[in-house]
Amino acid sequence: MFAQAEIVLKPIGVVRTAAVGDEVKDKTRISQIVIRNELAEALDGIDGFSHLFVLFWLHEIPDEQRKTLKVHPRGRKDLPLLGIFATRTMLRPNPVGLTLVELVKVEGNVLTVRGLDAFDGTPVLDIKPFDHWDTAKDARVPSWWIKLENEKAQPS
Amino acid sequence: MFAQAEIVLKPIGVVRTAAVGDEVKDKTRISQIVIRNELAEALDGIDGFSHLFVLFWLHEIPDEQRKTLKVHPRGRKDLPLLGIFATRTMLRPNPVGLTLVELVKVEGNVLTVRGLDAFDGTPVLDIKPFDHWDTAKDARVPSWWIKLENEKAQPS
Known about the structure:
The structure is a homodimer.
Chain A: E1 7-9, E2 13-16, E3 30-35, E4 51-57, E5 70-71, E6 82-83, E7 96-107, E8 110-114, E9 123-129, H1 143-153
């Protein structure tokens, strides 16, 4: 069933940002994605899209934390203990981040993007154009998720 | 700049589907994702979400095709030659697929989903809940993309 035991990826580029700590969560923040020089040609035409998905490697997660099965979302004990696949926690068997960003500009092998919640030095794995098929209208989310969203919208 | 040369992932599960060939592109198709037994607990609470992102490994892409930099979308010479990061081609440096699916039901370590365009036996790398922050309103896409979408909507 699981014949292919290991899958090997190689970074296509790296994140550059001045943001540190929680600043990376600020969706108005600008970051750069510096693509490996030999892959620059693979960006041709990307400026036709306003939004991109960025897949990146959460390189600061220690290997032993990849064994985590359950978490309280954002470490909050007042929220239910949930399986990690029901959350966006970084503690995952394969710590790959996925974020939708706005493409601001492209210069050579450098993409300038808005809203990438990744630290400086984060290896980037893939970039995919965003389209409406990546969207679900009226998606249902659980009550603990809505609670967190409401708190973000109205900070106390 | 690229100190971390290699990143190693391990499948969390596998796709099971009766669909073959182009049938996998049918967005009404039902598939199963069979999660490794030891990770079953990591699904707790996932049924609170109606939609999930599935990240999967395009295991049938030969290594040499990972060096592709440009493609005509869907092999069509009447469309521009584009960098692979401007397309959703499977020929990517890191052939990771990303698809939004509808979660139909969860039974033990098996997720039943609708709309997963992956072949039987495809290794699954991650599953993430979908939320409105993964969406861009009025995202801009290039004209060749719109042309392809219109053709899909109105097959000749």
